Amino acid sequence: MKITLLxxxxxxxxxxxxxxxxxxxxxxxxxxxxxxVIAPPKNxxxxxxxxxxxxEGVLITQQLTKDDYxxxxxxxxxxxxxxxxxxxxxxRGNESTKRIVFxxxxxxxxxxxxxxxxxxxWSLSKLVFPHMIVRLVLxxxxxxxxxxxxxxxxxxx
Length: 157
Known about the structure:
Layout: E1 2-8, H1 14-27, E2 33-38, H2 49-61, E3 69-78, H3 82-94, E4 99-104, H4 112-117, E5 120-122, H5 131-149
Parallel strand pairs: 1-2, 1-4, 3-4, 3-5
């Protein structure tokens, strides 16, 4: 199973880039993993919020295949614990899912088409975070989930 981390936005912020790369490398010890960072549409500044979400939605769905298991990060999603995330990932592996795609939408969220396409909607918190922080937390939590699946010492209960 492959893990793809997809985000709308600019490239990794240099202040957080090292940490994101570190956790991504750690994940690669368990699963093939890649980041796809999609630049916002060039005319984003002149688009309405809805039009921007639609344009970003098209960019996101172009990266997906019909077999992908899509986990959307969204404030309307379900709050889960790290062990519950591990179970979710393990279940996908048990079902021979070829690729799990975690999606971080744009500043205004995602278009309804992406929301409806999602197999699972996950909220990291009721708080709102900058995208770079979300990328770091996402990478760390996936690594943590992998260590839980393997019953390794990283996660302390």
